[in-house]
Amino acid sequence: MTERPPVSAHGLVRHFGDIKAVDGVDLEVRQGEIFGFLGPNGAGKSTIVRMLTTLLKPTAGQAWVAGFDVVAEADAVRHAIGVALQDAAIDPLMTGTELIELQAVLHGIGRDEAHRRGTVLLDRVGLTAAADRRVGTYSGGMRRRLDLALALIHEPHVLFLDEPTTGLDPMSRVALWEEVRRLNSEHGTTVFLTTQYLEEADNLADRVGIIDKGVMVRLGEPEALKAQVGSPTLTVEVAATQTELARQTLRQFGDERPADKGVAVRLKGGAGEVAAVVRALDDAGIALAHLELNAPSLDDVFADATGHRLEGAGAPQVAGPPPGARRGRGRGRGAPTPESATR
Asked: What CATH code would you report for 7-226?
């Protein structure tokens, strides 16, 4: 019998009354990769994570995590995974050390081993100095890093991170990215990361799956997906009264693309056509307020697949690894216990 990949699903469906939140999703996550699951709010990302982590039962279809069926072998799945959900609820009156020790007890880890692992993990996520402070005094970034440490206490096979940087400032986001990369690189644990931030998926993920309205619309390596889109996107902003004229003028240079502002086209002639575009707009009597040329991005991939832009495209930009830097390889957190299942 062929060994199953760390995460796989076939025909996964989830209904909430008349609403079909997930509609027949197939996916496979390879051993040791960071898999980025990208999509807007309400696309079905968190619902899929909750099914894969046994917090929700599928309406139809099957899924396996760490080789176990998420319905028939839910207890085995919980022992094999780490989970850090975006709505994590951490007791503000307990200290970081106390929460680490409690999580260890819930996983049946002895006192001495729990102390050893806790010390290492708190140091790894940069919380040693704050270990004996009440969590209520932690910043948002510190809480997310503590949640990651809690996720790692039992050394799980697969780590699920559900929008781990939502609401964090850019510096805290970068710090968490670096920790995920380091954990992945040093330990080789598979990481399943959901996000609505384009730069997060682009910087962290070895492969990405893009979901919209409960349906998987693209799957592959970020660079390969962007290469499929092809030409760069040219966006121009003009006065509202001249928008339609600008649209007509730009059609000769490429197919129109979705745009949050102004008019955008896929510039089939590449950057060399920009001067010709400016001349054509000038000849048409159009006053140009702003012009921007962008290489294909994951947002272009999303727009190409769905006809609209990803709302996460507007997220704060933060620095990624230097060009050519190797993406990480990963590791994971406490499986949902009765006490942590609502996190």
From this structure: 3.40.50.300
pTM over 0.85, yes/no: no
Length of the chain as a residue count: 343
3-state SS record for the chain: CCCCCCEEEEEEEEEECCEEEEEEEEEEECCCCEEEEECCCCCCHHHHHHHHCCCCCCCEEEEEECCEECCCCHHHHHHHEEEECCCCCCCCCCEHHHHHHHHHHHCCCCHHHHHHHHHHHHHHCCCHHHCCCEHHHCCHHHHHHHHHHHHHCCCCCEEEEECCCCCCCHHHHHHHHHHHHHHHHHHCEEEEEEECCHHHHHHHCCEEEEEECCEEEEEECHHHHHHHHCCCEEEEEECHHHHHHHHHHHHHHCCEECCCCCEEEECCCCHHHHHHHHHHHHHCCCCEEEEEEECCCHHHHHHHHHCCCCHHHHCCCCCCCCCCCCCCCECCCCCCCCCCCCC
Query: Per-residue pLDDT tens for 47-90?
Result: 999 999 999 999 999 999 999 999 999 999 999 999 988 766 77
Q: How far apart are CA 318 and CA 335, in angstroms?
A: 30
Task: Please write the tens of the pLDDT for every residue from 164-175.
Answer: 887 778 887 888
Domain ranges (residues) in the chain: 7-226, 231-295
What is the second-level CATH architecture of the domain 231-295? 2-Layer Sandwich (3.30)
